[in-house]
Amino acid sequence: MPDNLLLDNGQGVIDPDTYFETNSPPSNLNEYDEKTSEFVKYHGARGTPVVLITSGGTMVPLENQTVRFIDNFSAGTRGAVSAEKFLENGYAVIFMHRQFSLQPYSRHYTHSANGFLDYMTLNEEGKIEVDAKYAPSMTETLVKYNKARNNNMLLLVDFVTLSDYLFKLKSFTRIMATLGRSAMYYLAAAVSDFFIPVEKMAEHKIQSRDGALTLTLDQVPKFLKPLVSVWASNGLIVSFKLETDGNLLVPKARQALEKYGHQIVIGNMLSTRKKTVTFITQDSERVMSLDQEELDKDVEIESKIVPELIRYHRAWINHGTLDV
């Protein structure tokens, strides 16, 4: 991006319907719709609870033929780890992730300090083998991954741009609505709050020779409202709130609950998000943290988040409330 970038909020907020009318769906939407429909039908017939996990950040193009873009900070760690924990607890998972972000199971090797080839070695016959010191952990991970895929418990769906994300979110949540209260929506993706509408976007690469760049960004429509009230009205909906000012975390989470009417907001601070979260519902507030012993053992906070959500989800399925 050029220096001296000026970001200015737009002239108003368009509604979700208008957004979908003025933007084109991703070219692979029909393909993923078919896969999602088959996946949901399969597990609906078996009474398996299904969770849609959104993970990673969205990219906002600055040009129709995109060279430059604005991106959201997220490697997709929370979503990928959570997917593993849900699978271990018998949930079927639709993992809707940013392309090339962390994925369940493979995350242990694709984004580690070692390059993937560092886990391999050549034996005396010149054949590839897993290095003996990594073999036990890789075997354990591979067994879990194969179990999930062989039992049709994991469906991987990717997105890149904000538009990709929003079209797929709308479509998949409406497909999952047939599951009623057995569906959970775990909205962990870092979604951009601002974008450039297609009609205001440059067609070709913005030229740096023109000097400083001033951008006017419109606010992204509030898609959580139709998701809660229309697309997925019977499911358990969990959103996330990331803040850097601790004084804003709980008040803004409560504002979201009041405004959109969903069930749970999980709040976290940027600096402590990997060890402390706050569960906020209409009637409760609970801080959940890893202690030093757990941190020393590389316990992941998602191992506490997911069981808590499953307890809530069981109550939601049985009674339509969060009373556990």
Distance separating the two termini: 49 Å
Shape from CA axes? globular
How would you sum up the major sheet?
8 strands, mixed
User: Which class in CATH terms?
Assistant: Alpha Beta
Task: Determine the mean pLDDT.
Answer: 94
Helix and strand content put the structural class at alpha/beta
What fraction, in percent, of the residue positions are helical?
25-40%
* H and E string: EHHEEEHEHEEHEHEEEHEHEEEHH
Second-tier CATH architecture: 3-Layer(aba) Sandwich
Tally of DSSP helical segments: 10
Radius of gyration over C-alpha positions, nearest whole angstrom: 21 Å
* Uncertain ranges: 1-11
Strand content: 15-25%
- In CATH, the topology is named Rossmann fold
In the residues, how many domains can be counted?
A: 1
Number of DSSP E strands: 15
What's the CATH H-level superfamily name? CoaB-like
Order of strands in the sheet with most strands: 8-5-2-9-12-13-14-15
Question: What are the defining features of this structure?
Answer:
single chain, 324 residues, alpha/beta, Rossmann fold, eight-stranded mixed sheet, three-stranded mixed sheet, 10 helices, 15 strands, 23% strand
Description:
The chain is α/β, with parallel strands linked by helices. The protein has one domain (6-234): CoaB-like (Rossmann fold, 3-Layer(aba) Sandwich), CATH 3.40.50.10300. Helices cover 36% and strands 23% of the residues. The protein contains ten helices and 15 strands. The strands form four sheets. It has an eight-stranded mixed β-sheet, with helices on both faces. A three-stranded mixed β-sheet has the order 1-11-10, with no helix packed on it. The protein has a two-stranded antiparallel ribbon with strand order 3-4. It is globular. The termini are far apart. Residues 1-11 have low confidence and may be disordered.
